[in-house]
Every structure is written in structure tokens, then in C-alpha cells.
Specification:
InterPro entries: Aminoacid_DH-like_N_sf, Glu/Leu/Phe/Val/Trp_DH, Glu/Leu/Phe/Val/Trp_DH_C, Glu/Leu/Phe/Val/Trp_DH_dimer, Glu/Leu/Phe/Val_DH_AS, Glu_DH, Glu_Leu_Phe_Val_DH, NAD(P)-bd_dom_sf. It comes from Lachnobacterium bovis. The protein has 17 helices and 13 strands. It is an alpha/beta fold. Among the domains are: about 130 residues, Leucine Dehydrogenase, chain A, domain 1 (Rossmann fold), CATH 3.40.50; about 160 residues, NAD(P)-binding Rossmann-like Domain (Rossmann fold, 3-Layer(aba) Sandwich). It binds NADPH dihydro-nicotinamide-adenine-dinucleotide phosphate and (2Z)-2-iminopentanedioic acid. The site of NADPH dihydro-nicotinamide-adenine-dinucleotide phosphate has 21 residues, from helix 9.
Length: about 450
């Protein structure tokens, strides 16, 4: 049995109850086959893959807090510190009722390769809780965040592990967590990214994931002799990533006609009104029905459905496994040119294969949404030198990073005879740097 098959078999046996983690591990290990096969003896002796798939440590803790009625509530907190071969653990905190250890592990595993692709010195980690910020008062969110950080602060630090936002964790939550960290530890340090501008945050971090997604999409199209201008774009999600992807795509002359949230979706034939969307989602924290109420020409539909709208470019920006095989078929039938992932693992493995087999240009999230964490690393640099860079400076670096990622993943795919397979290219390019660092550092 090949080394990859051996490790995959063991991963499946050991993690049978973690389908999302298995999905991520299978995708990565399958596409690393040519690299591993070429170094099989050495990597097997070093147990390189066994060390890569097993997190350095997995923290799981109780998060008790008091709600507005005086009732004590208990959630579960997680932090998976996956791999710090190339830098301190880095990755977001997801607050969503669906969070469990398998989801945090899949996200942490992806983060290792994504962070490597940024070219910046950051290792992989992820955390979160099954706490649901929806419908909670600011005081309840603060109570949760303070309790969560009271435990988490023992394990993180500016040179150790630097968490950030993800689903359900935005500027408000990061602020409450930063305050609690500072209070307990007594140090003012860049322990979190995505901070407010008045206390060490970076300009352009809010926009970075969505903007970065569009920058890499633009580079992909350019490389294939096309332009994003005048293209019709379909976006899912209505959160941090989706909003700024829509904004940048529109700035570059594309027409974005959809967005979605956890209960329904909008088709706006005039193009999504980003300012209205920001008002509904960032300010009012309301449902997309409010968008429809303010813009009667738009359609609102319950449930899921954005992938049935005819488009040139599809950008899934909500959550994992939101673009299924049947959606991929619909997109191909309607003549889609490119699918670039804003979310982490939004496309199922069979849907990805269908898109690739049908000639659709496809970039996976660990490459295409890396602009967020890359800009977090730029925030860390600014915190270390106690300076703040201008929006243009950060945005300029972000553009360059996304271009570099595109060319690195494209070249890696070519090197192994898989030209145009950007999934394999991303996994290989991300892996190479981490593997080299792990081997150089001995058995650890
Ligand atoms: P937000 O919480 O800001 O927004 C998430 C959006 O997706 C919301 O519109 C939400 O709906 C919708 N959504 C969430 N879960 C589901 C679900 N189970 N079914 C349907 N819709 C859902 O999160 P982000 O925009 O930050 O994150 C989106 C994705 O991008 C995630 O996969 C995240 O891991 C990834 N990502 C985020 C980065 C960042 O910097 N923020 C960086 C890289 C990747 P509703 O409005 O109803 O809550
Ligand atoms: O999935 C991701 O890359 C993020 N949620 C951002 C992580 C970060 O540290 O900025």
C-alpha cells in the first residue's frame, strides 16, 4: 500500500466521527500523491504525514456565562493548535451552533496550507464555540466573550497563537475578547487580529478576505485572457467575506446579482446595493427580508438557491458544503467560467471534481480566501513595530500577495504535470514549505 493510502486509512479509522475533517484531509492527501510518491521512503521514515494530520494539541473547555434573565448558560470552547512549523499558530474563532471538534479540526488543517501560501510566517490553528451570537444582547455577547477568553488566554499570545474572526466573530467580539485578555494578562500585545483601528487593528483587514478573493479571481481571468469587467457574478453569504467581495467586484466593473444568509437569498437584477446590505447585516444584524423590504425590485426567496442564477463567476462565501453536485451541474449548464471559494471548503468533493472535469476554472478557499489571514499577518507586523500603515499600503501588499499566490499555485500544478488544477497546486505549494520546515526542525 502506498504511504498516502496507509495514512489516509489510519486517518479514517481514527476520526470516523469527523466527516468535515475527513473531507479536508482526503482532499489534501489525495492531491499531494505525486509529491509524496516522489519522496516516499524518506517521508515514511520521518512519519511526516502522521505528524501533519495530528494536531499539536486540541483544547476543549467549558464556557459558563449569565444571560439577561440571570440564567447561567454553558457552551463548549475549542482551540486546535495544529502546526507551528513556520510561525505562531494563526486562525480564526468560529461562533456558531454547528461548531464541534471535527469542524474546528478541518478548519485548522486547511489553515496550515493557507497560511503557508501567504508567504508570511504563520502556522495553522482554529478555534471557536457552539455559542450562537444571533439574537443575543451586546451584554450577553460580552459575557460569553469574557468567559471564553478567561480560559483561552492561558494558551495564546502574540508569539504563541494569534486568533481572529470567522463566522459569528467580528469586530464586536474581538473587542470584548481583547479587553479580557489585556485585563487578565496585564500585557498590551497583538494577541488577536481583526482589532478595531483605535486599539491596534489594521486598515483593510475588514475588507481583506473579500477583496483578496476578487484580486485572485481577476488574476486568474487575466491569465486566461479574460477580464472581470462586465461579468455577471453570483455570491452566496452576506457576512464579512461576501460583503467585501461584492464591493470589490462591483468596483472592478462586474455585476453582482445575488447574496444569501442562513434563511434565504436575494436576486437583485439591478446589482446588489452594498450600502443597503451593510446596513441590514452589519448595523441592524437583520435578515435579508429587510433588504427586499427596502428594494422592492429585488426578489427574496426562502432557503438556498443562488447557484441556479446564470452567471460567469460564482463566489461561494457563506460556509462549508454549500455548493453541491447538483449546484455544480446547474452552474455548468448555465455556462459558468470560474468558481473561486471565499468560504472554507464550500464546495463538496464531487462538485469540485464535476466543475474541474467540465473545464471550469476553480480555485479552492485555502488559496482564494487567504487574503484575510495574510492581512492579519500584516496586522501582526504593524503591532510588532508599533506603527500603522495606510490603507493603500496594506491593500497594495494584499494585491501583491494574492497575485503571488495565484502564480505559485499555478506553477506548482504545472511542475507536477497538472496544469490548471489549482486545488492540487494550492495543496502542493502550501505543503512544500511546511514539510521543509518540519524536516529541518527534527522530530517534534
Ligand atoms: P460571517 O459570520 O460574517 O458571515 C457568514 C455568512 O454566511 C452569513 O451571511 C451567514 O448567514 C451565512 N451562513 C453562515 N452559516 C451558514 C449556514 N450554515 N447556512 C447558510 N448560511 C450560513 O462570516 P464570514 O463572512 O467571516 O465567513 C464566511 C466564510 O468565509 C466561512 O467559511 C469562513 O470560515 C470563511 N473565511 C472567513 C475569513 C474572514 O476573514 N472572516 C477569512 C477566510 C475565510 P446569517 O447572516 O444568517 O448569519
Ligand atoms: O479562515 C480564515 O482564514 C480566517 N477566518 C481568518 C483567520 C485570521 O487569522 O485572520
Amino acid at each position: 500500500m502506498s504511504y498516502v493510502d496507509e495514512v489516509l486509512k489510519r486517518v479514517k479509522e481514527k476520526n470516523a466521527s469527523e466527516p468535515e475533517f475527513l473531507q479536508a484531509a482526503e482532499e489534501v492527501l489525495e492531491s499531494l500523491r505525486p509529491v509524496i510518491d516522489a519522496n516516499e521512503e524518506k517521508y515514511r521514515k520521518e512519519a511526516l504525514l502522521e505528524r501533519l494530520v495530528e494536531p499539536d494539541r486540541q483544547l476543549k473547555f467549558r464556557v459558563p456565562w449569565v444571560d439577561d434573565k440571570g440564567q447561567v448558560q454553558v457552551n463548549t470552547g475549542y482551540r486546535v493548535q495544529y502546526n507551528n512549523a513556520i510561525g505562531p499558530y494563526k486562525g480564526g474563532l468560529r461562533l456558531h451552533p454547528s461548531v464541534n471538534i471535527g469542524i474546528i479540526k478541518f478548519l485548522g488543517f486547511e489553515q496550515i496550507f493557507k497560511n503557508s501560501l501567504t508567504g508570511l510566517p504563520i502556522g495553522g490553528g482554529k478555534g471557536g464555540s457552539d455559542f450562537d451570537p444571533k439574537g443575543k444582547s451586546d451584554r450577553e455577547v460580552m459575557a460569553f466573550c469574557q468567559s471564553f477568553m478567561t480560559e483561552l488566554c492561558k494558551y495564546i499570545g502574540a508569539d504563541v497563537d494569534v486568533p481572529a474572526g470567522d463566522i459569528g466573530t467580528g469586530a464586536r467580539e474581538i473587542g470584548y475578547m481583547f479587553g479580557q485578555y489585556k485585563r487578565i494578562k496585564g500585557t498590551y500585545e497583538g494577541v488577536l487580529t481583526g482589532k478595531g483601528l483605535s486599539y491596534g487593528g489594521s486598515l483593510a483587514r475588514t475588507e481583506a478576505t473579500g477583496y483578496g478573493l476578487v484580486y485572485i479571481t481577476e488574476e486568474l481571468l487575466k491569465d486566461h485572457g479574460m477580464d472581470i469587467k462586465d461579468k455577471t457574478v453570483v455570491v452566496s453569504g452576506a457576512g464579512n467575506v461576501a460583503i467585501y467581495a461584492i464591493q470589490k467586484a462591483q468596483q472592478l466593473g462586474a455585476k453582482v446579482v445575488t447574496c444569501s444568509d442562513s434563511t434565504g437569498w436575494i436576486y437583485d437584477p439591478d446589482g446588489i446595493d452594498v450600502e443597503l446590505l451593510k446596513e441590514v447585516k452589519e448595523v441592524k444584524r437583520a435578515r435579508l427580508t429587510e433588504y427586499k423590504a427596502a428594494k422592492p425590485n429585488a426578489e427574496y426567496h426562502e432557503g438556498r438557491g443562488v447557484w441556479q442564477i446564470k452567471c460567469d463567476i460564482a463566489l461561494p462565501c457563506a460556509t462549508q458544503n454549500e455548493l453541491l453536485l447538483e449546484d455544480a451541474k446547474e452552474l455548468v449548464k448555465n455556462g459558468v467560467t470560474a468558481v473561486c471559494e471565499g468560504a472554507n471548503m464550500p464546495t463538496t468533493l464531487d462538485a469540485t471534481k464535476y466543475l474541474q472535469d467540465n473545464g471550469v476554472l476553480f480555485i479552492c478557499g485555502k488559496a482564494s480566501n487567504a487574503g484575510g489571514v495574510a492581512t492579519s499577518a500584516l496586522e501582526m507586523s504593524q503591532n510588532s513595530e508599533r506603527l500603522s500603515w495606510t490603507f493603500e499600503e496594506v491593500d497594495g501588499k494584499l494585491q501583491q500577495i494574492m497575485k503571488n499566490i495565484y502564480h505559485n499555485i499555478s506553477d506548482a500544478a504545472k511542475r507536477y504535470g497538472m496544469e490548471g488544477n489549482y486545488v492540487a497546486g494550492a495543496n502542493i505549494a502550501g505543503f512544500e514549505k511546511v514539510a521543509e520546515a518540519m524536516l529541518a526542525q527534527g522530530v517534534c
